[in-house]
Specification:
- Two copies of one chain form a homodimer.
- With about 210 residues, the first copy, chain A, is mainly alpha-helical.
- Chain A is built from nine helices and no strands.
- In chain A, helix 1 crosses helix 6 and helix 2 packs across helix 3.
- Chains A and B meet through helix 6, helix 8 and helix 9 of A and helix 6, helix 8 and helix 9 of B.
- Chain A binds a DNA duplex (30 and 30 nucleotides) through helix 1 and helix 3.
Chain lengths: ~210, ~210
DNA sequence: ATGAATGTGAGTATCCTGTTTATATTCTCG
DNA sequence: CGAGAATATAAACAGGATACTCACATTCAT
């Protein structure tokens, strides 16, 4: 519970006060996510972001002191989103199949708008200074959620953390790959991904 | 069978004839793979590659007409390697567990030297002109191999292709993720990845 | 020893980057 | 309305990185 509303708002040069400027800031962040996902960190330039947002470059620097502050804002928004998705899927004590279905649905939803944003944020975008901490804390909570789910459906106490790691990265891999091929909506893929999760958590000892 | 030896050698400005120049070309390709894996496509500059290879920039352009020809050479070498790994693991008719073990071992081996090369090659590096074809053909053969394995251990004829896609991208995801965390050698991770493969291919119908 | 093969690295021209700043427009509120 | 604050604009700058060439030096095979 408790969807955090009072965000520390990242590092900003000044707070937007009027509705107009709030929309501008939102447009910049959204466009930033788009550029980052589409062109990668290499193609992520402040000028491009401003243009994609339909806003002049000056407006961008009115609110974000530099490029990194902008990435941090994008990162924060995306991570909050993903975390809440896992949270919701793992809430209550649902049967395994339902959990898997909801998790798949949610994760796909979280990645269908900016398909490769997650990967870019994790792999390419730099994490100097303060964002390293936020980064690590996200990773930790991310794994925690998965570990909780694993513990919930597996009796064995051993290897829970490793299993969480394997499970999460496998899911990410499948989704990332599907996104690159524009197959995120294919229902048979969603079904198979669900099967993969169930099978792994059911833990067949079959030879 | 038939490990192709006669490579068309990609697009090259001229063929190295003496042992010296062959070593130079090899060093360039190897350094290129290293730079690509370490800095990504964004940091992949011909000057950096030459320096990393301990070779002057002029030597690089003596054999590779341009940047793209170099990437093509790197790509070809890596893809050949990966393909042969899958080939070997799927050869003969081994029991499922052994196949999984060997596949995991081989794939990890193929990625432990240049951990993120595979992803960079697939995601970031451009595929203009002729390399698009090679790229597609690699993807096709890649999936074929996996599909063959899936068909071998699953009776159901349906969804074989989708399963191959899910399986391969899940494995890639886990390995890529582990590489980023320097956990490629962790034995419990290798074991769990094997378990994931077995569980999925065994196909539990458990609720 | 001679010509071919190979290696060198300073230099070129171009493009792009993040950021500032002086100016113009729009809002808020008395 | 209208004055001052908030917001938006885009030309301009300084610096750096880039891919690639070229005139020359070195090493090989014969």
């Amino acid at each position: 519970m408790s969807t955090r509303i009072a965000k520390p708002a990242a590092r900003m040069r000044k707070q937007p006060r009027q509705a107009r400027s709030i929309a501008t800031v939102e447009a910049i962040i959204e466009a930033g996510a788009h550029v980052l996902s589409e062109l990668g960190w290499a193609g992520f330039s402040t000028n491009k972001v401003a243009e994609a947002a339909g806003v002049s470059i000056g407006s961008l620097y009115q609110y974000f002191p530099d490029k990194l502050a902008l990435v941090e804002a994008i990162r924060r928004r995306h991570f909050d989103h993903v975390l809440s998705v896992i949270s919701e899927a793992a809430a209550d004590e649902k049967p395994l199949r339902q959990f898997a279905r909801e998790l798949v649905r949610g994760m796909i939803g979280a990645h269908s708008i900016h398909p490769t944003l997650h990967q870019v944020l994790l792999d390419e975008a730099p994490g100097d200074r303060g964002s390293r901490a936020a980064h690590a804390s996200f990773q930790a909570r991310y794994l925690e959620h998965y570990a909780a789910a694993v513990a919930q459906y597996r009796k064995r106490r051993k290897d829970t953390e490793t299993m969480a790691r394997v499970l999460s990265s496998a899911i990410e891999g499948v989704i990332h790959n599907a996104a690159r091929r524009n197959m995120l909506d294919a229902p048979e893929l969603q079904k198979q991904l669900g099967e993969l999760i169930c099978a792994y958590l059911s833990g067949s000892k079959a030879a």
